[in-house]
């Protein structure tokens, strides 16, 4: 049976933490210190829980704005297609 080279100390249910462990053990990529994160990387990163949360919130926000724009465009289209009686 094949054995994984990654020695994980975390449950496999946490995909984000598993990816972080794989980066650390297989590729030697360490999470940067908080002082090294500048600009948008400070708020949107894959190293901290807050950074991951911000990605999720931004994604949900984009979906909500897209749905709202579509809904408003659809209602505007219905109003323009309604027959008007000018008799």
Automatic annotation (TrEMBL):
Sorted keywords for this record are: Membrane, Mitochondrion, Transmembrane, Transmembrane helix
Major subcellular location class: mitochondrion
Name the Pfam families for this protein.
Answer: ATP_synth_reg (PF14960)
- Enumerate the transmembrane spans: 55-72
Entry's localization field = Mitochondrion membrane
Q: How does it sit in the membrane?
A: Single-pass membrane protein
Sorted alphabetically, the Gene Ontology cellular component annotations on this record are: mitochondrial membrane
Any idea what this protein is called?
ATP synthase membrane subunit DAPIT mitochondrial
């Amino acid at each position: 049976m094949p054995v994984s080279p990654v020695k994980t100390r975390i449950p496999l249910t946490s995909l984000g933490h598993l990816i972080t462990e794989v980066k650390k053990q297989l590729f030697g990529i360490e999470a940067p210190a908080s002082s090294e994160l500048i600009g948008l990387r400070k708020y949107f990163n894959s190293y901290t829980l807050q950074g991951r949360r911000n990605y999720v919130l931004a994604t949900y926000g984009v979906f909500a704005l897209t749905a709202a724009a579509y809904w408003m465009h659809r209602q505007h289209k219905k109003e323009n297609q309604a027959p008007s009686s000018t008799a």
